[in-house]
Amino acid sequence: MPMDWDTLLCDQRYRWIVTGKVPTRNPEELRTEFEKDYDRAVFSTPVRRLQDKAQVFPLEPCDAVRTRLTHSLEVSTVARDMARAVARWLVYERKEKITGAVPSKDPVRDIETIAATCGLLHDLGNPPFGHFGESAIQDWFAAQKDDIFEGCEGGKGGELAQDFLKFEGNAQTLRLVSKLQVLADEYGLNLTCGTLSALCKYTASAMQADKKSPNHDWSKPGYFASERDLIETVRKATGTGDVRNPITFLVEACDDLVYRTVDLEDGVKKGAVDWPTAEKMLRDHGGGKADNILKGTYEQVSKVAGSVDTRQFGEIAVQALRVHTIGAVVPAVIRAFKERYTEIMEGKFRGDLTDVCDHKEVLDALGDTVKKHVHTTPDILRLELSGRKVIHDLMTLFWDGAKKGEEGTKSYEQKAFSLISSNYRQAYKHALEKKLGRQT
Questions:
Q1: Which residues have CB under 8 Å from 2's CB, separation 6+?
Q2: Which stretches make up the HD/PDEase domain (predicted)?
Q3: Residues 163 and 272 in one domain
Q4: Coil, helix or strand at residue 192
Q5: Which of 153, 157, 220, 269 is the most buried (most CB within 10 A)?
């Protein structure tokens, strides 16, 4: 059975489903439940912490260079606009009968709000230093597995062990918003099932995930064993089963588009790559679509070409390139979504929209430029290597504290344990009590 939008736009919250207690709606409340999700995200501590995480350049003193927070805001903005266009197509051209959430009963508003929220939250669980940080965490657990996992359920080859050996930032995002960010109880931000469903970029467990899988959504773990009950509830409530929510495809495409364009923009601003090099890479490898984008770029910046120096011109040009690239790629991704709409709704399309849109060559050229000239700058490499050691040292310290599990100030283990967030300790205590309750 194909997925159904009225089911996908489930505005029930996990706590409501688990407890069976649905609060009475305030008749003066003008926000939908999905808009409340967005507001909860904006005011949450994990989102604020993104301002201290690097997007590309760690510990960057220049406030014009992006942090992970500004990147997330940009993804959220583009995702909102893309989702709005798709939703209007669904409602006004395809004439899909979608009810929408109260009080507005406006499905366009619901779909764009879910996309905006997921764009804001999509990087929440990524550790410092991004994918390099993920690898550092995985390697630390691999080196300590005999000590840590021997007494765990399933041992070194069990699901709990695999959650850490294949540690993934997207799975950590789900854990953060559903458990670790405490508002009032153990349900975290208590987001709607519709938002949680769209937030799941990957759909496999750690045991199922395989880097070589032909299905993109199974290439990495999408959730930890600790969130399995949540995932099962959300899938049942939204009707997705074990495939992606359609909104997820749009948010991922926006992330892919935004990071390629803005990482290049920041790279030019920092002097990691100059404009002529970036332009040549795009002309040589971006195909005819790149020529059109560059034509629009030069038409926009031609007025200032003779009044600024070479470096300033490069910074202006790469900003214009970002504008024209996003302006061209967003409609291309929307076209790809429309072309594969039936496959997406039936759970048969398991790829990435940016790989099947007609601007793929442009995105690949931008991505290759960033990887070759920006991500490999000596400053970034040095900080990533030192960051790996810092992550390993901190994990060793906090593992020693957690293993002993005593508060105090006499030993370094006690000091380390005392520094572990009370939210996280409370989440562990609740999970342990729940597990012991099941066993009795």
A1: 342, 345, 346
A2: 64-269
A3: no
A4: strand
A5: 220
Choose among 79, 259, 114, 81: nearest CA to 199.
Answer: 114
Domain-terminating residue out of 343, 370, 397: 370
Count of CB atoms situated within 10 Å of the CB of 107: 22
Alpha carbons 225 and 207: distance in angstroms, whole number:
10
Question: Do residues 151 and 203 share a domain?
Answer: yes
Q: Is the pLDDT of residue 440 over 60?
A: no
Whether residue 143 lies inside any domain: the answer is yes
Q: Tens digit of pLDDT for each residue in 298-355?
A: 999 998 887 899 999 999 999 999 999 999 999 999 999 999 999 999 999 999 999 9
Q: Indicate the helix (H) or strand (E) that contains 368.
A: helix 360-369
Asked if 25 and 205 count as a contact pair (C-beta separation under 8 A), the reply is: no
Q: The dihedral of CA 37, 238, 241, 114: what is its sign?
A: negative
Q: How far is residue 165's CA from residue 183's CA, in Å, rounded to a whole number?
A: 30
Q: Is the dihedral of CA 108, 111, 117, 123 positive or negative?
A: negative
* Assigned domain for 81 exists: yes
> Among all chains, which residue has been given the structure tokens 């995932």?
231
Where is the domain boundary, 347, 370, 393?
A: 370
Write out pLDDT tens, residues 352-381.
Answer: 999 999 999 999 999 999 999 999 999 889
CA torsion sign for 249, 250, 253, 254 is: negative
Give me the residue label for tokens 């398991």. 350
State the Cα–Cα distance between residues 380 and 57, nearest whole angstrom.
6
Does residue 124 contact residue 46 with C-beta atoms inside 8 Å?
yes
Residues 207 and 313 in one domain: no
Q: Pick from 89, 101, 124: which is nearest to 13 by CA?
A: 101
